[in-house]
């Protein structure tokens, strides 16, 4: 069952946008002023054209035409400057708002419980910060400047038509119902199609990502064709929706053309009639009104034709704002007085139906080293994640020194999980993620403590070598040691190690066990141990099965007891 990330309602999206614009009041006011100036400058020459027509008809001297020509030239220059300024200001405003939205979205995503993100699918989130941001970005940089300039021009042109003569203005407005009817026909049909198109693109990204991440499994089980079929199906759905959008759009264009024809014809026929009947309307005014209306074709078409891009951007914006509506727990600020880790009556399930932890209670005393063992799926990683505050217990509590783990300030509890990620960049910067102020000496000391300094120094540029994606490749064991060195730099009182040695294979495993031991020395440590030699070296062992604590004690006591641990230990020894 998927639990998609939320999509903001139109009301939430508008209020978010209004908040952003309100926060940039001055910039918005200057942009509006520039836009109105540009629109005004392009309306003046048309009204001047009407005056010229009337002057020529009245047989005026050519000298009378010169000031009008000069005025038009000056206004055109000013208008050009204002139009350029409007485009720059609108796109800059849009880009700034988009940048803050992207930061907000990524910020929320990074602080979401891993469980929420897993359930929703990381592909959906990536599609939001990727494809949706691109759609909104294109709209902000390319479409919005044109649309906003077109809106100003449309408003001022209609005002100017009424200024020439109110009857000509009314004639021009005759086309308005047809425009509105076209929009009323188009919008309700296109909005769901756009939302479906974006969702289909998100689903395709999700499938692609899953196939890429699980590429080894896909190869191993020869699932290539099944995955390709699924991706093809998702792509076909996205393509069909795009074709559907375009077909709808072409029908919409036909309706707009009919509205333009009706509007222009009404002005010309009405103007002709007013002039002939002597209603005080001049030929020049009629000509100016017709040109003003004709000049509206482009801006109005621009507004209407870019509606699809605006709608796509709107759907993308709603998906981005939607992420921001997720509740994110505030970062903890409390500092526990003692370094003991306690789980009391903890229950947990990844979904409502299947319980994973069924009443776990355990305590790791300050400075104690406790190993969690149990068969696959027993719940060890889940216990580690709850102890680290990554997952929240459904019932029961996880505390350090009596303080719930999610209320503790960052850096007190740290986990080295199965997913040790090497971030792209110089190795020393990767280490400094744990301590931004760390000196080269302390970074080297951390590497030395976990036995990684020798190989780190032998890299092509030493600690300055770029590692991670696209950089110098590190082995799984080196990546684990790097994660352990980060732990040393962070220096948490409580360390949780989840299979920190599992990636190394038997050759490197013993070395990694020593690295882990060195990194956690003196800390309260909860260790998920798949290699039972690690468990044997711990102060105490807790055996988990089916989400409950089955046995608890030192290695010797548990072996002597002849229970589950003793069975695991003898199986472990027989394979060595
Ligand atoms: N993100 C998840 N979503 C749904 N179920 C999950 C998730 N992670 C783990 N589970 C399930 O919860 C149960 C406990 O998993 P957990 O990873 O805690 O066990 P484990 O003892 O650490 O196993 P392993 O030794 O294989 O890592 C398993 O049945 C597993 O399939």
UniProtKB/TrEMBL annotation:
<dbReference type="InterPro" id="IPR036640">
    <property type="entry name" value="ABC1_TM_sf"/>
</dbReference>
<feature type="domain" description="ABC transporter">
    <location>
        <begin position="341"/>
        <end position="571"/>
    </location>
</feature>
<dbReference type="InterPro" id="IPR003593">
    <property type="entry name" value="AAA+_ATPase"/>
</dbReference>
<feature type="transmembrane region" description="Helical">
    <location>
        <begin position="143"/>
        <end position="162"/>
    </location>
</feature>
<keyword id="KW-1133">Transmembrane helix</keyword>
<keyword id="KW-0812">Transmembrane</keyword>
<dbReference type="InterPro" id="IPR027417">
    <property type="entry name" value="P-loop_NTPase"/>
</dbReference>
<dbReference type="Pfam" id="PF00005">
    <property type="entry name" value="ABC_tran"/>
</dbReference>
<feature type="transmembrane region" description="Helical">
    <location>
        <begin position="64"/>
        <end position="86"/>
    </location>
</feature>
<dbReference type="InterPro" id="IPR011527">
    <property type="entry name" value="ABC1_TM_dom"/>
</dbReference>
<dbReference type="Pfam" id="PF00664">
    <property type="entry name" value="ABC_membrane"/>
</dbReference>
<keyword id="KW-0472">Membrane</keyword>
<feature type="transmembrane region" description="Helical">
    <location>
        <begin position="261"/>
        <end position="279"/>
    </location>
</feature>
<keyword id="KW-0547">Nucleotide-binding</keyword>
<protein>
    <submittedName>
        <fullName>ABC transporter ATP-binding protein/permease</fullName>
    </submittedName>
</protein>
<feature type="transmembrane region" description="Helical">
    <location>
        <begin position="168"/>
        <end position="187"/>
    </location>
</feature>
<feature type="transmembrane region" description="Helical">
    <location>
        <begin position="28"/>
        <end position="52"/>
    </location>
</feature>
<dbReference type="InterPro" id="IPR039421">
    <property type="entry name" value="Type_1_exporter"/>
</dbReference>
<feature type="domain" description="ABC transmembrane type-1">
    <location>
        <begin position="29"/>
        <end position="312"/>
    </location>
</feature>
<dbReference type="InterPro" id="IPR003439">
    <property type="entry name" value="ABC_transporter-like_ATP-bd"/>
</dbReference>
<keyword id="KW-0067">ATP-binding</keyword>
<dbReference type="GO" id="GO:0005524">
    <property type="term" value="F:ATP binding"/>
</dbReference>
